[in-house]
Structure prediction request, 69 residues.
Amino acid sequence: MKKIIAKSVGMFELFYDLVFVYAISKIMAMVHHPVNGGIPLVTLLQFLFVVIVVLQIWIFQALYFNRYS
Prediction:
């Protein structure tokens, strides 16, 4: 069994996390205010697309930093 070695978090990783927190807050503003008690289908589809893209970028970035830093 391999021993797990802890590493410290770099400032670059923390900066990227802050960027993603800001992006998620802006994405949530897309569906924050419902129109006539609901969210239009076009807005919901745009929201889902943007969420998937941003989360994929975050996952790839996290995997890259964990593997190569």
User: Anything to note?
Assistant: The chain has a mean pLDDT of 88.
